[in-house]
């Protein structure tokens, strides 16, 4: 056998061995087996519930105004102060304390007369006096006596527009009642939906408080109080204060 033949055989063997190793190196590894024991995502049901709560208001916010006019600012102010002092002096008879009475408006304004000359031209305005308005805001807790308070206030000198707004003194209690109703309705809806799907309602996973608020009865707008004989009792209807709440609740679902 020639020397060239003796050298060729080992070279061919080495080449074959190299190709085999490359083929083994390029073969992709088998996929990893799935992880054992991984819990499946629980089935969930999200629902929204709305609730309302109603209660008779236990607080009235009342605005009363005394208006007086005089030839001078001092005269108008003196007359106004005398009338307002009489009004405030009578308030303790109805259970109102100093903390329940607040001055919420006070103005002194000149009053002018505008004359037109015979030729149609406008004459300069003439100062004829002054007008003083003093407004107080009352927090009346004895809502059932509000008519008596208005009657007495008019008889003592209140003679200009005012307003009444009925509210809940502790709105949080009414708001929480509305939230409880909203949660109960959300659970009832979830149970009905789960039952229709052939499933059972599981654990409560989350709960979120949504939109909520207090809606008082509409204010009695702009009462016109004129200096007229007082009635035995001014009729007042308080109505109801309403609280509303919305909740979003998520439950787990079970077979």
Written account of the structure:
By secondary structure, this protein is an alpha+beta fold. It has a domain at 58-169: Protein of unknown function (DUF541), domain 2 (Alpha-Beta Plaits). The chain is built from 4 helices and 8 strands. The protein has helices at residues 3-26, 73-90, 146-156, 171-196; strands spanning 44-55, 59-70, 101-113, 126-140, 160-167, 200-215, 220-223, 241-254. The strands form 2 sheets. A 5-stranded antiparallel beta sheet has the order 3-4-2-5-7. A 3-stranded antiparallel beta sheet has the order 1-8-6. α2 runs antiparallel to α3 (146-156). The chain starts with a helix and ends with a strand. Mean pLDDT is 83; it is low at 11-25 and 218-230.
Fold blueprint:
Blueprint lengths: L2 H24 L17 E12 L3 E12 L2 H18 L10 E13 L12 E15 L5 H11 L3 E8 L3 H26 L3 E16 L4 E4 L17 E14 L1
Antiparallel strand pairs: 1-8, 2-4, 2-5, 3-4, 5-7, 6-8
In short, what is this structure?
The chain has helices at residues 3-26, 73-90, 146-156, 171-196; strands spanning 44-55, 59-70, 101-113, 126-140, 160-167, 200-215, 220-223, 241-254. It has 255 residues and is α+β, with helices and mostly antiparallel strands.
């Amino acid at each position: 056998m020639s020397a060239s033949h003796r050298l060729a055989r080992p070279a061919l063997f080495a080449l074959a061995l190299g190709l085999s190793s490359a083929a083994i190196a390029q073969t992709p590894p088998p996929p990893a087996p799935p992880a054992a024991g991984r819990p499946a995502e629980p089935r969930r049901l999200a629902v929204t519930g709305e609730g309302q709560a109603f209660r008779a208001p236990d607080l009235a916010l009342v605005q009363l105004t005394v208006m007086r006019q005089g030839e001078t600012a001092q005269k108008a102010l003196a007359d106004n102060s005398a009338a307002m002092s009489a009004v405030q002096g009578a308030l303790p008879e109805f259970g109102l304390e100093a903390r329940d009475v607040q001055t919420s408006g006070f103005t002194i304004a000149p009053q002018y007369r505008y004359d037109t000359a015979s030729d149609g031209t406008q004459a300069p305005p003439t100062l004829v006096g002054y007008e003083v308005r003093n407004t107080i805001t009352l927090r009346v807790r004895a809502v059932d006596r509000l008519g008596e308070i208005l009657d007495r206030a008019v008889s003592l000198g209140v003679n200009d527009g005012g307003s009444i707004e009925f509210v809940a003194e502790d709105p949080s209690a009414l708001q929480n009642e509305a939230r409880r109703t909203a949660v109960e309705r959300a659970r009832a809806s979830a149970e009905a939906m789960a039952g229709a799907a052939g499933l059972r309602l599981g654990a409560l996973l989350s709960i979120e408080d949504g939109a909520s608020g207090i809606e008082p009865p509409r204010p009695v707008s702009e009462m016109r109080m004129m200096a007229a004989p007082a009635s035995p009792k001014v009729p007042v209807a308080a109505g109801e204060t309403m609280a509303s709440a919305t909740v979003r609740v998520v439950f787990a679902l079970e077979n």
